[in-house]
Amino acid sequence: MVYDIVLEPNPMLHAPSALVSADEIKSREMQKFIKDMVETMYVKNGVGLAAVQVGRPIQLFTLIKEYNDLNKREDLALFNPTWKKLSMRGLTDEEGCLSIPRMYGQRKRAAKIQVTGLDKNGKKIEFVAENFFARIIQHEVDHLNGHLYIEKATDLRRVDPK
Q1: Which of 22, 63, 108, 121 is the most buried if burial means most Cβ atoms within 10 Å?
Q2: Is 39 part of the annotated catalytic residue set?
Q3: Domain residue limits, the chain
Q4: Listing from the earlier edge strand, what are the strands of the sheet with 90-97?
Q5: Catalytic residue among 29, 66, 140, 151
Q6: pLDDT tens, 83-114?
Q7: DSSP summary character for residue 3
C-alpha cells in the first residue's frame, strides 16, 4: 500500500512522535506497516521516510538500501532512534523533503554519528554512520522529534517542475 505524504504546514509534522515498544514492533500490523512505508518511500522517490510523514506519529523511519551502509542488501527500518555526534566536523549539503515538495536548501549536519535504536525485529541496534548515511538519519530523526530541515537550512529555494 502506498501512502499519501503529509505536507507542511500540517501540525503533525511539528510534534514529537511516540515511542514504540518491542512487542508493538513485532506485531503483524507493524511489519506490514514497515513494508508499506518502504514501498511508499520508493514510489515517492525518497531516500528516507519517517512514519509521521505518512500520518502515523510514531518513532520509526525507513531508509533505502542504496544508502544503508550497514547492509546494502536490505532497507533499514529504525525505531526509537537517537544519535550523538562523534566528530566536530560538519558537512553542509543540499537537502529536500517529501513533505515540502520542490523546496531545497543548504543544511549543515554532523559528519559522523553514533546511532542507537531498535531494528525491525525489536532488537537493540547500535552503529556508526558517516557522511550521506548520517545526513539521512539526522534528517529523519528530526522528523520524529517534530523538526523540519527548513528550520535551520540556508539558501532555501523553490524548484518548479518542468
Answers
A1: 63
A2: no
A3: 11-158
A4: 90-97, 100-110, 154-158
A5: 140
A6: 999 999 899 999 999 999 999 999 999 999 99
A7: P
